[in-house]
């Protein structure tokens, strides 16, 4: 079977903000349990909004054949490959107006093609995968974004481990918030443990909410501070308004 | 002051489905009260997802100046003109995965530029407008979409009249559902009454939930049946999978 | 017509916490515009959970006749009197597990009897009233509570003024948060302005989001600090675990 | 270890309605996989609303010691015993005003005492259990109720299996809806499979969304029809308005 494969999906246009930071910590949590990880920034991929072929004709929605959107430079197929590769996926979104970003919503809408294979083959292409969810923002809405993601992913075929959700709501840098960084790290740990349990490997007998990893998380936070700074510097080129 | 101006925003890619039908009925409701109406199909306008300049630098988010997205063929400015023209806006969305469509979410995210003028001039460009909301879909999620839209629009500056929300959830044609067509029509009536009240004109003393308009709605439904059929035929060209 | 009557409903068991404080500020905002205000603490009233007579027989749900719950020491009728007295109601809830409190949910469920009069008389007893909503809590969920309240109240017959919603999410005392105290005060101001507009009185031409009331709010905050302290002291008798 | 223990919690006041029916099917699904099941009707237990001791003093919230509410005839301890007995719990709620019932919300609020043991002992009493969720109602709100339950239970320590959520929204009898009855049955099957996987037993290699159980569900529906009719007859005594 090999190592557990965990994909991180960043739904924020920023590669150095709180959403990215929490996702990075989750992937390091997965990595600490021996998983192979990959982080994708959704904004690197042009995505057309769903055309709702399904509403006209249920069987038109198919992966990889259908989706007339591919002709418009749409990159969904590439993202889908990463989704299919993964055993577990951690979806991270900024909170825009009390909900996930429009980019992430569009991506989730497009995942219908994978879930809809249940009508073509009897099995959703997402059946049995594991999901974790993260939301970060200044204003309210983290719970709204997380709960929406959980229900949607669960109804596409994803299992969700205990404390598979984490959020940060506040003005500042999430790295200053011990609770949020711990929660984020634990999302990555939890998804890997659940994948292992589902494979018949031992899930571990520690509590599912891990309090014994504080020092590890503190070390990772230091490493992440530098990485985020570098990403921020790189970003000045395409985001000249950055203070 | 002139007639009340009502904009209808269709967040569905289909111009003949339940979302469109309910929106059309709402606009006829507004028209019956003397309003001037306009219906916009969001999918006719290319929209880039929000780049979150605001998260880097609050003052970068501005209308009409900022938004580096305009360079990419983005049409937000045109949509914004329609929004600014209107006294009231009825937002209609299909229900995709328990929420509004990604297209509508992206549009709402982009409206931040108008709301953010409060930091530039002391007043949101949406301050004092009136909103109505509609959601239609087969599966669950209408309430989730409506409640999210209501909070968001309210926090951007929109007033919401009593029964300013309507939904349809079901497999079939909304035109066969008396309750839903009545609710949709009433959304349009309500937004106009509220604009008038805010202008100092008489709002009318009838209940805000109108039961006395059933015959009128039944007539409109017959007219709409033909219109939707025509739109569906026209759509076959760009949607060849239509049954 | 007399002064505008505004009822504040506190859905928290504490009469000195953030929920209460924000509600108090909202009522002072209403009072500053000449309204007559009343504040009710839901927890002072025993309320049985809804028995869903409506699901068996639509016409059984009636106010004031039905509701077999009255026999159990249930106080809904008294609360309903206050609701009917009011032109506008500000509902304030603590955030418990990402939602409004069970007490407030139960109260809202029971309001069905007033809304259901539309089937008996053609008009909901709540038709045309105005609502404001407030949510306060440490953890996430304020947006979830607010959006749920907005949709529900709107579908019972309440209009909602622009920025008729306010929240606070944080560990500390809301009185230290200028934004939240300003938002809360503005909810009270907005509901009164909207009632006046609906009566045919002038709504005022200032923006609906008031930035010019900061000093006034700061003064009220000082007054409230003492009041909350007194309420907290009084509470030690029934809440001996208070630190 | 013995058989998997599954508790069903009915949050509806009716023991014969759609909520009960879907829950009964879920428990039969669990039973078909060898689980021991128990069904509890929340309305049989007097429950006081949470007093938020936690907001005054984090450590006051404790199970089984604290909760001054026990003195008022409150039955939470009995319900908690059932919760602790179970490996998996299926929570079923009617949809009242776009959300779970006030009764269920109050019960969930009270579960804080079990989750809060993490501050006393380092482990939530709910850590590692498995949850399924069901919502049934005429009007919209099923998704809202389900998503709220999923996030809340997940953040208390529950894992959620793929398709661990099911709903029915419609006017009629859920037993006439093949999809909804299948979904409900599958919730019970899924929670048992996940408990087994977490114990190190084989989870089974069939898809997590089971299409091969249609005949079994059809048989159970026939059995349930009679049971529900009997429960309805019994209920006439305490619900004389039943048509």
TrEMBL record, chains A, B, C, D:
Q: Give the UniProt family note.
A: Belongs to the SsuE family. Isf subfamily.
Q: What is this protein called?
A: Iron-sulfur flavoprotein
**Which PANTHER family did the record assign?**
NAD(P)H-DEPENDENT FMN-CONTAINING OXIDOREDUCTASE YWQN-RELATED
According to its UniProt record, what is one Pfam family this protein matches? FMN_red
Q: Which UniProt keywords apply?
A: Coiled coil, Flavoprotein, FMN
- Show the GO MF annotations: oxidoreductase activity
InterPro entries listed in its UniProt record:
Flavoprotein-like_sf, FMN_Rdtase-like_dom, ISF_SsuE-like
> At the top level of its lineage, which domain of life is listed?
Archaea
- Indicate yes or no for the key word Coiled coil: yes
Q: Domain NADPH-dependent FMN reductase-like: where?
A: 4-161
Instruction: Give the coiled coil ranges.
Output: 210-238
Q: What is the lineage of its organism?
A: Archaea, Thermoproteota, Thermoprotei, Desulfurococcales, Pyrodictiaceae
